[in-house]
Amino acid sequence: MGSNITTLAIGYGLPVHLVDVDRPTLDQARARIARQLRHAHLLGALPADQPAGELVTSTSVAGAEGATAVLEAVTELPDVKRKVLAEVAAVVPPGTPLVSNTSGIPIDELAEELPCPEQLVGTHFMNPTYLIKMVELVRGPRTSDAAVAAVESLLGALDRTPVVVRDDPGFVTSRLLHPMINQAARIVERGTATVDAVDTLMQGCLGHPTGPLRTADLIGLDNLVDSLAALYERTGEQSCRPCDLLLEKVASGDLGRKTGQGFYDYGEVLS
Q: What is the pTM of this model?
């Protein structure tokens, strides 16, 4: 999601300082962003007459010092997110909006160790960000009006439509979609229907645009399992406990489109 959001931002002319764990990862991200920019322009999803914003990459959060806003999009693990947000908060001026892109971790949990918890806002961008215009914007109980307004303004500059929701595990989209995908995988696990049959019925009968299992491959099955586990831990709802089939696919490294194999075989790694 970090490279997806970067693609969107530089596609609208905004400069981005992208930080990741090491130089090879950053090199891969830069190549992925270039491919995504080409794809987005081919589809007319980015303004054709807008020069791309400057992209700078580094392995240090010190580069965030002069940022007008900081968006964290690391792995869906609360401790990792809290650590990164705390590191960033230590280098940015007070009042700088901090944004955690998460599919369902409550924002107030992530704000606990921040010196200014009112700066933190949640977003849930959909993948691919340059094709899906709507974004969940999550307001925590301590989030300030100024922080929400700043992030709404940023999303407006990216031609995205924010929908503000209250802080709660899974928010809206993940709380509805991820248990549904989990149940779809359970149906396949029980042998009731094939993967293709489940998706075909959901598309043809219920109007789901791609089918839940094809959507799972796009999300990334590891990301999906992490999100479901976080929901199960916080709600106790059995519908959120990752099913065995999902766990087996993640354990075998079949994570969806990004590895070339998930519920479907993509023949090559796609990113």
A: 0.89
CA 66 to chain centre: 24
CA 129 to chain centre: 9
CB 2 within 8 A of CB 43: no
What Cα–Cα distance (Å) separates residue 31 from each residue in 148, 161, 241, 261, 269?
A: 32, 28, 35, 21, 14
CA gap 51, 56 in Å, rounded:
15
Kind plus residue range of the DSSP H or E element containing 157: helix 145-157
Model pLDDT, residue 271: 47
Query: Rounded to whole angstroms, how far apart are CA atoms 79 and 75?
Result: 10
CB atoms within 10 A of CB 183: 13
Determine whether 39 is an active site residue: no
Domains of the chain with CATH codes: 2-166 (3.40.50.720), 173-259 (1.10.1040.10)
Which single residue is written with the structure tokens 């962003």? Answer: 33
What pLDDT was estimated at residue 154?
97
Catalytic residue among 39, 124, 178, 208: 124
Report yes or no: 70 and 97 within 8 Å, Cβ to Cβ.
Answer: yes
pLDDT in tens, 136-167: 999 999 999 999 999 999 999 999 999 999 99
Residues of the chain with pLDDT under 70: 268-271
Tokens (6 digits) for 236: 């106790």
What DSSP line would sit under 196-248, residue for residue? Answer: HHHHHHHHHHH--SS-HHHHHHHH-HHHHHHHHHHHHHHH--GGGSPPHHHHH
The whole-angstrom separation of Cα 37 and Cα 139 is 30
